[in-house]
Fold each of these.
Amino acid sequence: MTDRQIIVFGEVLFDCFPDGHRILGGAPFNVAWHLQAFGAAPLFISSVGEDLLGEQIKNAMAGWGMDLNGLQTHTDQPTGQVEVKISDNEPSYDIVSPCAYDYIQSGQLPGLPDHPFLYHGTLAIRNAVSAGTLLAIKHQTTPDVFLDVNLRTPWWRINDILPLLSNTSWLKLNHHELAELVPDRREEERRINKLFSSTQLKHITLTRGEKGAVIYSANGFPSISISPEKTISVIDTVGAGDAFSSVLLLGKIRDWNLETTLKRAQEFAGAVVEIRGATTTDQAFYRSFLKTWN
């Protein structure tokens, strides 16, 4: 069986810390990075600036074997950054705007597969240019859409996000985001049922942090839930949700059943919180999962 192509659309950026340390990230980029390590060869569509940070991103992607055909270079906008500030040991984030990933151009899209899986989040559509390009991808292909909700104040509006659900097959979000999208219901299952009744969604994956995750299906099958099987030594939780999403997508193209997919996504996310940062260049980190899953 030949894997279907996965298109990953959205932001790539650097998290910039007060001590001058920079960490490469952005939820879509993290997802694409993991998928590449798992042999899925995604097409990552984003934009970087014509600057040093942009060159670093290109070099990192090339070194990891990723396809650079979808990575645009914007001459007037800088590579994305998030300024991380620490106060009383608590981080706060300033997502710099505007930047290159706000201006992903539809006219610069590479050739696209006819029937891909399309992953995107909600940050990169804060600007009409990138939002329009996402729409163009949907019009140029017949995708199965995976929407990963990541609400970053003040860069989202409910009226921009709800219409996206009309052509989404698989929705992933956490319980806080569920409450934001469906504020007029109090219980989790009532909120889930409202989303199913008002959209064409096939599956909703709800993450619950240390309590695990659950997949709800529109066809009425019982929900599938999972909790972490072992005590995790948490280094940091940065990118855990992105790791989880990458394996959900991998399960789709490898035709794993939902229970297997959820179990493996939880395992991989649990491993990522035991390392520093959202990704790693250590191929050995992925090897044990590849050995078990293939």
Amino acid sequence: MSELTPAIEVCIAGTGSYLPEKILTNAELAARVDTSDEWIVSRTGIKERRIAADDEFTSHMATKAAQRALEQAGLAAEDIELIIVATITPDTLTPATACYVQKNLGAFRAVAFDISAACSGFLYAMKISKRLISDGAFKNALIIGAEKLSAVTNWEDRATCVLFGDGAGAAVLRAAKPGEGSILATEMGTDGNLTHLLNIPGGGSACPITSANVGEHLFALTMMGKEVFKHAVNRMKEAAEKVIERAGLQPEDIACVIPHQANLRIIDAIADRLAVPNERVFVNLDKYGNTSAAAVAIALDEANRTGAFKRGEHIVLVVFGAGLTWAAAAIRW
């Protein structure tokens, strides 16, 4: 593609999601740790979350979400050229979970790899795919956010075990046809100085899990909640404002804001700072909890399928996660 050739516009042709059958309620958690439904709801907005079966892995959930997105997009698996799975709970450290998804789908023409950007991963994948399609390297892409966070949760820690759930969401991106919507603007950022605020300390090369430390819950998510809250609100606001401005939009032009589903207080703060009415902010946190990279992808699919926005309307996605990482996208649907 020469410098004079205009960039190819990229649209979202289909979305899909998958949630495990098992529901874990606040009341059930209260029977395990010192907490209550009132405590959890008042501080997080979460009422229940989904938990994958023991033999149900991240790749299984990712595959089911992907199949639904492909069906809506009217695209066969064998025609997919790129698969990116965003996850912090891969089936195995290697090969990538995307390779298992490629096998499950039969999408053998696709280049497949994972990215790790925690809760921001799905929008990182969107930006990467948009650029690769826009540059002409690929005609389409399947991006998936999928997590089995129940596998990395310390179920004895009431500060974190109430927050997380399992699930997957997916989207098919392709070159847009004349008159179709498109991804108008994207933004992403990282601040590695704040890695200590939200992490899984063990399981990597810096701190392998051994027989000596196996009982220390080192392969579980840990979080400094108050600090994360402050940075999440500020970074998400900044990222959303940037894509809104680049897309040439005003708050009143936005039909739906779909934020990361981590905490209702964060979501309310973002809506307030963006001057978007709460009725135009999509929330499903109460049903699923925080599903990390899957959260915004699942919410996008539910919002799409329930008519939260229509063709031609503008939506904004905005996320924040460990790293610390953040991202946003403005889209004409």
Amino acid sequence: MNVNLIGIPLFYGCDKKGPETAPDLLRNNGIESIINKHGYTVYDLGNLYVKQETDDNKFKSNTNMKYLDSIVDVNTNLAHMVYSSLESNSFPFMLGGDHSLGLGSISGVSKHDDKFAVIWMDAHGDINTHETSESGNTHGMPLGACMGFGHEKLTNLYFKGQKVNPKNVFILGARDLDKGETDLIDQHSLNVYSPEDMKSKGLKETVSSIINTLRQNNINRVHLSFDMDFIDSKFVPGTGTPVDSGFDVDETKTVLKEILESNLVKSIDFVEFNPNLDKDNTTLNLAIDLIDFMFENLK
């Protein structure tokens, strides 16, 4: 299989510098050869261009979405790159960057095949809108926008209309949700699993149930979006919005293995590694280990 490595050096979605340096740092630490050793041919497509903004432009859109123009531009380009990768029967692997890039990656998948599911591994729901967000940071909005909730500049990115059916979205590990997000979850009966939910049912059992549901609904494609803060804060100093009461590394790998061995995952986001916040390369080494693990177990 061909893997298209796509760097998205973006921090405007989280408004905290650092994640934009992660793609090149991971490259410089050999992730291409790590993926290669598992039998994949890697084509490094480089980093997407991110239009530089100044603080003066932070809210120039007057929409409670910071740096909106740059975020829309880079996500539109990412969407087309993901779509093109999938059309050429390649596997797009997105190296972030902050999680606002999920808007582009999911939009690209949707244009290629609109019958798919999203598994979103994250301490946060990322289903805020410009009306519910307290921060105005768009890395808290991409998944909601892909389901059709939010401002039209996000919901209609790349092509007009909903990108993924909410019933085919599964948020794993959520434990830091805003009021607007919990309201949306209740209103639309969204599939959200807290660490407590997953551990009480069993990690493998939780994922197995999700995979079985997808198969019953004839879904044969999953976009996996992995945020480093899925892991408990004590293990990942180098992420911008760490949350405790999460998962340790072994538990994270248990969840990943069950998802990856389903033979449904056809694209992956790897986001929210912030080298500026890391301590003694703890998060860097963990990120490299997780990427190695992902491609070792990808079926």
Amino acid sequence: MKSATLLAAVAASAVMATAGLGSVALAADLPSRTAAPMAPVEPIVPVFTWTGFYVGVNAGYGWNTNDSNGEAFVPGVGYIGSSDSDGGFVGGGQIGYNYQFGQFVAGVEADIQYADLNSDNNNGYYYSGAGGYYGSNSNGVEWFGTVRARLGFAIDRALIYATGGFAYGGGGGSNGGYYNGYYFDNSDDIRTGWTLGGGLEYAFTDNLTARVEGLYVNLGKSGNNGYVYDTAYAAGDRKDTEFGVVRAGLNYKFSSF
């Protein structure tokens, strides 16, 4: 009896051990629980903005928009005189700042330019056998600069804008003449006025932009008020010094981030 009981206990232990080994094997066959790999994070690309300081250069063509005509009156002859108005190269540099809010861009810009703009008006006559007069007026411009406000509308990297403000310049205005062998001169120095225009600018990169711009510049009146000798009159020529400019430019925009 004791032997039978011992054998039953051994058999039960063997069965339990076998069941335990099967559970371990079944657990080994189950898939392991691991976390799914994370997707790579894309770098955040900043949206382009026109906000920031910039410096640049420009070059183009300018032309006088005022055809000034000088004339002189000679008794028994009438008025005589001539005029000449032409254009030439303009070029220089600019510096400015833009601030973008929504699709609108506001800014301020200052520039200084070399200008090959001349407008000469010659008028003269010969008076009596011993005396004579020859006079000339010039309201050309050899250099000019502007300080302007800008307001534009941005379409992504393109900017359409209007601009206007203060203008100054000079270097080409003088009034002189000969009378009885004597020469007199009344030269103009710096003249001031205003300017108005507009343009289109495009940003090829975040830092490099190119533009095409047109300006009308008016530097006020220059010339003389005329000369009188006896019954002869040499008419003066007080006309506006005004000219147009079309120019292309390149700007380097400093990062605004």
